Amino acid sequence: MSDSALLAHDRARGVRLIAGVDEVGAGGCWAGPIMAAGVLFDLERLASGAGRDLLEEVNDSKGLAPAKRERLANAVLAHAEAVSLVSVPASQIDQIGLRAANLACLERALRAVGERAELRLVDGYALGSGAPVHERIVRGDATSATIAAASIVAKVTRDRLMARLGERFPGYGFERHKGYGTKEHKVAVEKLGPTREHRLTFNFRRHTEAVVAAAPASRRKPRPASWRELPAAEMAAHLLETPTITDRAWTVEPRLLRETRTAFIRRVLLDETDPVQAPKSETAATEAVSGPARPHNR
Predict the structure, then answer these.
(1) Which CATH superfamily is domain 5-163 in?
(2) What is the pTM of this model?
(3) H or E stretch including 34?
(4) Cys-Cys link to 263, which of 29, 109, 176, 276 (CB 3.0-4.6 A)?
(5) CA distances (Å), 264 to each of 13, 114, 237, in order?
(6) Are 175 and 47 in contact (CB under 8 A)?
């Protein structure tokens, strides 16, 4: 049997133990958690064992029929060396922002899959320097069989959760739209109001202005500022112009030893690795807000 393109990609990396991580429920989603899965495969064992046909079928979960996703998710759980599954709830997404929640979820899934992997692949994102060594794969769920397997596990598990939330909160259609921003979802929230599973962050407010005005006062108090949802370049510009914003307000990644705030922002958001020296006034402002930099022991 010839390898599928996704499986051929992974075999070409020349390792036996390969881990893939992917998430679901981030962009465009108004309700429910972000969920990330990690999958560790032993490619040699799969090639000679009962799961030898498994990786031939896996693909981006979004392009698979629900019944096939369910079957493949069960196969992954049966034949993977390890599987991790973590989530970040709507309340925490509101608190720390979508980007920080997404990165934190992926990093936790990467750690939870264990230390045996010889190669770790993450779909779409380069995680912080404190994360296990990994490689970012753009459109990884359509490129790597291992990442695709993780996307299937995350998608199937989250879909099951949203179906249960549909039973707990009848009338919202969670079992159909899975929390994403559809017309049905918008009409339901305008009529019934948001549940505790809804995210009252920028994307949600933009599409449901009438709903937010009627939200309970207890949910309206701590709303993240809209800058949290800006594209990376615009967020970096805003942070550089506003030295009073602390690091933890926008990222879970720590600074490197003696790294200035400007260099830190440019490294994390703009992928600029050359050190940038901040003026003394900026350093003083940073230390006034978050204290002197401390070494990070790894």
Answers:
(1) Ribonuclease H-like superfamily/Ribonuclease H (3.30.420.10)
(2) 0.69
(3) strand 34-42
(4) 276
(5) 31, 28, 13
(6) no
